[in-house]
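Ticket opened by: R.M.
Priority: normal
Category: complex prediction / small molecule

The reporter submitted a protein together with 1,3-dihydroxyacetonephosphate and asked that the result be attached to this ticket for the collaborator who will pick it up next week. Submitted input follows.
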Amino acid sequence: MRMKDLQVKIKTLLREKNAILLVHYYQRPEIQDIADFLGDSLALSIEAAKTDADMIVFAGVRFMAESASILSPNKTVLLPREEAGCPLADMITVDELEAIKKQYPDAAVVTYVNSSAEIKAHSDICCTSANAVTVVNSLTDAEKVLMIPDGNLARYTSLHTDKVIIPWSGYCPVHHFVTPEEVSAVKSRYPEALFAAHPECAPEVLKIADFVGSTGGIIRFARETSVGQIIVGTESGIMHQLQKENPDKTFIPVSDKLICHDMKYITLKDIFDSLTEVKYVVKVPDNIRIAANKALNRMLEVSLLWGCSGKRVNNVIGEV
Ligand code: 13P
Ligand code: SF4
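Result attached by the on-call engineer:
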């Protein structure tokens, strides 16, 4: 089937089933183009919490679909490919978390949404890359904060708070291995360009960035800057939206290794099959969901005061 025909069929099925297609910026371009809502983790969580659709099809990875199920327990949440996970989310277990909590009994636990539902359930509050600093600074009663599972996000946050941050040792295998040498090599080819990086990159890379932010933050930065060349320090999927929104600007990937294979599992055909066969349902059991919901909702309350990033996309099929 032609790509365009498949896109039209998916849009029709979404309408028939009163379903909404939520898409992360790292997804394949042809999926981003038919999103009902395209955004970063924070914007997608907010959308999942407030949608009145009966069904949420999540084009992202498992922790995102789990968050949607936690926030909207009465809706059917579908992840079109079961194996789409996040290696960073698997870098801490509940036993490890409980052990470190014992070591720092007076520390608050701030958990990056790139984590399992069970880990969220053992946390005080969640954060995303868009609001980590705001979330940490909102904890007026805590002087010490355990930030899990991403050590780089924790170290970046520690530069913007007076609190003592205790980082966990997890990392994103896509962002962590970008090197300052790679940045310098691209900068020498594009001396006028600005460098925008995701906070999952290592501290020595963030130190030489002109802008650090979530995927939604990078999209906004690219839109607002008057500079015409931007070196991009995050996953390759974001290039599609950057180029689409800014046809007169040049976006240069800092490395050709910035590809998250988990984010690339889902194809248009998987979304079509997911809608026709109602698979794969992601449902978080209530014994985990209720505590995880508390941590996620606490984050959303802080974020709603502060704002978020994302883009509502027109549903008209002619614009695909
Ligand atoms: P965002 O919070 O920018 O959406 O990032 C999610 C992610 O998985 C980054 O690797
Ligand atoms: Fe996880 Fe990294 Fe992929 Fe994001 S880019 S989903 S943090 S592995």
